[in-house]
Automatic annotation (TrEMBL):
<dbReference type="GO" id="GO:0004674">
    <property type="term" value="F:protein serine/threonine kinase activity"/>
</dbReference>
<dbReference type="InterPro" id="IPR036890">
    <property type="entry name" value="HATPase_C_sf"/>
</dbReference>
<dbReference type="Pfam" id="PF13581">
    <property type="entry name" value="HATPase_c_2"/>
</dbReference>
<dbReference type="InterPro" id="IPR050267">
    <property type="entry name" value="Anti-sigma-factor_SerPK"/>
</dbReference>
<feature type="domain" description="Histidine kinase/HSP90-like ATPase">
    <location>
        <begin position="7"/>
        <end position="100"/>
    </location>
</feature>
<dbReference type="InterPro" id="IPR003594">
    <property type="entry name" value="HATPase_dom"/>
</dbReference>
<protein>
    <recommendedName>
        <fullName>Histidine kinase/HSP90-like ATPase domain-containing protein</fullName>
    </recommendedName>
</protein>
<keyword id="KW-0808">Transferase</keyword>
<keyword id="KW-0723">Serine/threonine-protein kinase</keyword>
<keyword id="KW-0418">Kinase</keyword>
Amino acid sequence: MRAKIRADLAALPHLPAGLVDAVELCASEAFANAVEHTRSGQEGGRVVRSLTRPAHNRLRLAVVDDGTTDTTPRIPCERTAAEWVEAETGRGVLLIAALATGNPCTGNKRAGQ
């Protein structure tokens, strides 16, 4: 996954290295969440990603999965500092939100998320 997104980014002219690294990390985290928290991680599941450049100063990454299960990723807001130190999961969506601009995460509109 990372190699494919990096190859796609390399084909786009004049992208700063930091942006390439950030997009690669966001794509990887979104893909991992799709596999872990949706039907995409089940037999026959799919994850589709697209990378577009709607303007010279904007990239758009979309990661589409096969829909929710009972483990939909959510930003964990109710953790104490000690719980964050011990937490083994729950940072991916926060990481994407910190690196992306605009509206980095949209949920399943049909499910009302």
